């Protein structure tokens, strides 16, 4: 498809106020939203505000240039990340944040090998119950950053006795190859007040702290333990340093070790 040169002025006027430029050290993030997103949570309709972002080398306030290039780029081949925001996220004193790493098998298929699908839905519920917060869905974090195909290979190793950490290492990957800097840049654009983090993973607390964010606290997110993910969750605790103050796996887990 050839790239278009100019946009209809009406189309541009609709899009312009919904796009925000976030400059990075190199390149920029273009954040689009908010967009109303009513979600079915256990039969209840909860209305979130949805934002999506795109990384681009070109840094410009001329959004027509960016939009005009999209049709020539196969963006579906490169998944974009997004964030679901609930309540008065900018102004509310207390807000719950979840940085959720994409998990194709857990989030979409409901795989019991991990607890990602459970954590995704549970964090949306907790954020809505809390009254204000944001769920970041990080599309480049599949399999702790190794990608879906490599995760399939890692699962084969796991079926043959390797734990989640060793499987990644055997395939030549770092145990955890995820980067949170873009999500943090987006978070800082949406809110400057302190946030509480929904996670069992101390690395996420570290990443936020190092990025200069004011972290008010941490809320645990364990649950949906089964015979299929017990080993995975134990690995998270014993090898990946996940915190589990509540003792026991009674409410803990994570299969792709994605938390
Ligand atoms: Zn998972």
From TrEMBL:
InterPro entries: GTP_cyclohydro_II (IPR032677), RibA (IPR000926), RibA-like_sf (IPR036144)
Gene Ontology biological process terms from the UniProt entry: riboflavin biosynthetic process
Gene Ontology CC, one term: cytosol
UniProt cross-references to Pfam families, sorted A to Z: GTP_cyclohydro2
E.C. number(s) listed in UniProt: 3.5.4.25
Keyword Endoplasmic reticulum among record annotations: no
Domain of life: Bacteria
Pathway: Cofactor biosynthesis; riboflavin biosynthesis; 5-amino-6-(D-ribitylamino)uracil from GTP: step 1/4
Cofactor: Zn(2+)
Keyword GTP-binding included in the entry's annotation: yes
MF GO annotations: GTP binding; GTP cyclohydrolase II activity; metal ion binding
Record field: catalytic activity: GTP + 4 H2O = 2,5-diamino-6-hydroxy-4-(5-phosphoribosylamino)-pyrimidine + formate + 2 phosphate + 3 H(+)
Domain GTP cyclohydrolase II: 79-220
UniProt entry keywords in alphabetical sequence: GTP-binding, Hydrolase, Metal-binding, Nucleotide-binding, Riboflavin biosynthesis, Zinc
The protein's name: GTP cyclohydrolase II
Organism (species): Paenibacillus oryzae
